[in-house]
Amino acid sequence: MLSGVLEGASRPVRLFCQDECRIGLMPITRHRITLPGVKPIQESKPGYEYFYLYGAVEPETGQRFFTEHERLNSDCFQVFLDRFAETFPRSHNVLILDNGQFHKAKKLSIPKNVELTFLPPYSPELNPVERLWQDIKDRLAFDFYEHLSSLRQKTRMVLHSYTNEAIKSLTGYSYLLKATHVLSS
Known about the structure:
Structural class: alpha/beta
Number of domains: 1
Order of helices and strands: HEEEHEEHHHH
Distance between the termini: 15 Å
Radius of gyration: 18 Å
CATH topology: Nucleotidyltransferase, domain 5
Largest sheet: 5 strands, mixed
Number of helices: 6
Strand content: 15-25%
Shape: globular
């Protein structure tokens, strides 16, 4: 499927996995270990403000790219695509992503150095970015945020704390690494 694009390509080919994640003031809960019969206590105040992280990671190198948006739609995805293409201008970037309707909107203008490759429907387990989102939410769990601005700041701190090695460890699915080696040879 990609070989036709690659034969005439003069740029290196890079494989990224892309997805979006909603992060909001509704507290993220996880299991806690307590003594038998003791229920864990967590401060909670339901909040209905949120933002979306749009992200792409390269499982082979651990490089990543994130943007924050107020909505999950084709306009925000277009902004993400344009900024992503500007960030990685010297390569042909294959983005593996899910089948969200906004990913396939007719009004999208796909940058020349970006190629979209869609996963089979209803298969989030094939996208390694899901593991990253889970890890981020684990790090945000049990914290109480009064305002969205403080949650955004904490989320940015968590994102900046990841090393390339940590990202590779979370997202380096063997079938993707093998595909990357095939693409680059």
